[in-house]
Structures are given as C-alpha cells and as structure tokens.
Design a protein that fits this description.
Strand order of the largest sheet: 2-4-9-6-7
Helix content: 10-25%
Amino acid sequence: MATPSKTPPGPDPKQLERTGTVREIGSQAVWSLSSCKPSFGVDQLRDDNLETYWQSDGSQPHLVNIQFRRRTRVKMLCIYADYKSDESYTPSKISVRVGNNFHNLQEVRQLEMVEPSGWIHISLLNQVCMQHVETRQIAVLANHQNGRDTHMRQIKVYTPVEESSIGMFPRCTTVDFMMYRTIR
C-alpha cells in the first residue's frame, strides 16, 4: 500500500494580497469557536503570529464560525497548520460550510490533509461558495493519529478585489501604496 504524499504548502497569503487581486476581510467578521483552552482562542487564531494557535477543548467536530454582518463574497480561506510542531493536534480532515445563518449551512468543500506544514489554500470559486452569504464554518472532522483536540495556527479570509464601474485601476502594490489601501 502506497503512503499518501504530504499536503504541499501554498504561498504566504500576504504575497497574494500584494498582487492586489484579493483583500483579507477576517477583521470584518465576528468569530466564535465550539470550544477552546484558556488563552488559546480566537485572539491567537487571528494574531498574525505563526507560533500561537487555537486549541480546542472538547469532542469533535471542532468548529470555527466566521459570521459577517452582511452578505459577503469569499474567494478563499487560508489555514496555517504545522504537523511538525502539533503532531496529533494537526487537523487531517476539515469541512467548509456556508449559509446565511447557522441553521442552513451546506458543506461546499471537504479536504483531507496529510502532515501539512504551511499555508493551506481552500478555494471557494464555485457558484455556491462565492454567493454573497453571511456565515462560514470550518469544521475539523479528524486529526492526525486520531488526536482528540486540535491546533490551528492562523486562518485568513479573502474576498476578490472588484473592478470599478469606470474600469480597472492600476494595482498599487508597492509598500508605500499598501500603507494607504484601506480607509478606516
């Protein structure tokens, strides 16, 4: 029996942002978790530090809920996993679900990962995934070595950058322009 090959890592999502084709919108969502150990929750999952992580504390499936205030298009989810550091805590099977609330979620992607180490890119380009919906859910269905709890180090949520009605503006991707790309 052949050993499945390891899940190859994708590029750092910040490189994709610099192209000007996607924008990270996770800060616009309300995040919740099915469970977490104290000091290993949403803050660590979203802190841009690959050394920190969310650690679940309960039975599977472990859930990450991402809820926007209004209907939002999502092109891609990026999850950072590190099998070398997390071993049996590393997810091996995840499900991505979308809907307008928690009562009508539909699974749109299921992904099996083999000893991932790096960014895992989950494209949501098909019709159901790209709809303007409010709620996304990532469910950890299984861990490596039948581990009980899970670690996820980072999750990023990306929307496509739209063309304006008067045409495409040049992509400003230098560091100087990137400082001013968002109006708050």
